[in-house]
TrEMBL record:
The lineage of its organism: Bacteria, Bacillati, Bacillota, Clostridia, Eubacteriales. This is ABC transporter ATP-binding protein. GO terms for molecular function: ATP binding. Gene3D superfamilies: P-loop containing nucleotide triphosphate hydrolases. InterPro entries: AAA+_ATPase (IPR003593), ABC_transporter-like_ATP-bd (IPR003439), P-loop_NTPase (IPR027417).
Length: 255
């Protein structure tokens, strides 16, 4: 099976400083991937290279066998949706209209929205539990409510790839779980890549975990393989205890 996303030895620097130091990865449909690692290790930089917010070098990021840098932004938006780490919307848009923007990549230049668009937008908003906010202005939402709006927009975009950069950072525990469940449920025929910090949620939800440190992959694989005391010590410099219950792993810091 060909990977939907193939990253070949990606290197990326801001100014002189090398942040990604040669990362090679493949992402296949049907899997929920998590990227973990300490602050500043390059997670967002990697996500931005995949979403073309930053420009990777030629021949380093391939989506559906096409070099990302040869793809037009509309073509990318049809296949890839992104929920960024920091969301700022300063305009007084209605929540409904912001989610509807997810449909733009599927529309021709002067084509209006149709019932199919309205249907997918409503369903996406219901999944993210924000239908009740449809007439509110996005500037009047809490951080967590806004995060759910942007997630609904990503769902409405109806893409094969969804990138989530700390999508649960503003969410309460109930919504953190519900939110990850939404994306886990739809990952059968998609690639979901989430940057997450909560190692327990990562262990519960991920099919594959990519552990980064200083712009390099330290380990990659299922929770059993990656979430070890040794790896966590190496990457976060903390001691943890790991408990197994019913095939699930729970990680508790020793303080
Ligand atoms: N626009 C920029 N210009 C210069 N340096 C940057 C820029 N953005 C990020 N960096 C630096 O690149 C490094 C990696 O940043 P990145 O945002 O990828 O980290 P991260 O792993 O996502 O961290 P966090 O967990 O804090 O979100 C950091 O040292 C950061 O200071
Ligand atoms: Mg980040």
């Amino acid at each position: 099976m060909k990977s939907l996303i193939h990253i070949d030895n990606i290197k990326f620097s801001y100014d002189e400083k090398e942040i990604l130091k040669g990362i090679t990865l493949n992402f296949n449909k049907g899997k929920f991937y998590s990227i973990i690692g300490p602050n500043g290790c390059g997670k967002t930089t990697l996500i931005k290279n995949i979403s073309s917010l930053l420009s990777p070098n030629k021949n380093t990021v391939f989506i559906d066998n096409k070099d990302l840098i040869s793809m037009k932004s509309k073509e990318i938006a049809k296949i890839l949706a992104s929920v960024p780490q920091n969301i700022h919307i300063n305009y007084e848009f209605k929540v409904y209209d912001v989610v509807m923007m997810g449909r733009v990549p599927h529309k021709g230049r002067f084509e209006g929205y149709n019932n199919e668009d309205r249907d997918i937008v409503k369903k996406s908003m219901e999944k993210a539990d924000i239908w009740k906010f449809r007439d509110k202005l996005v500037t009047e939402l809490s951080g967590g409510e806004l995060q759910r709006v942007i997630a609904a927009r990503a769902l409405a975009q109806d893409t094969d790839i969804i990138l989530l950069d700390e999508p649960t950072s503003h969410l309460d525990l109930q919504y953190q779980i519900e939110f990850l469940k939404i994306f886990k449920d739809i990952c059968n025929d998609k690639v979901i890549i989430a940057v997450l910090h909560d190692l327990n949620l990562v262990s519960l939800f991920s099919d594959e975990i990519i552990m980064l440190k200083d712009g390099e992959i330290i380990d990659i694989g299922e929770a059993d393989k990656v979430m070890t005391r040794e790896n966590i010590k190496k990457v976060y410099n903390i001691d943890v205890e790991i408990y197994n219950d019913n095939n699930k792993r729970y990680i508790l810091p020793i303080i």
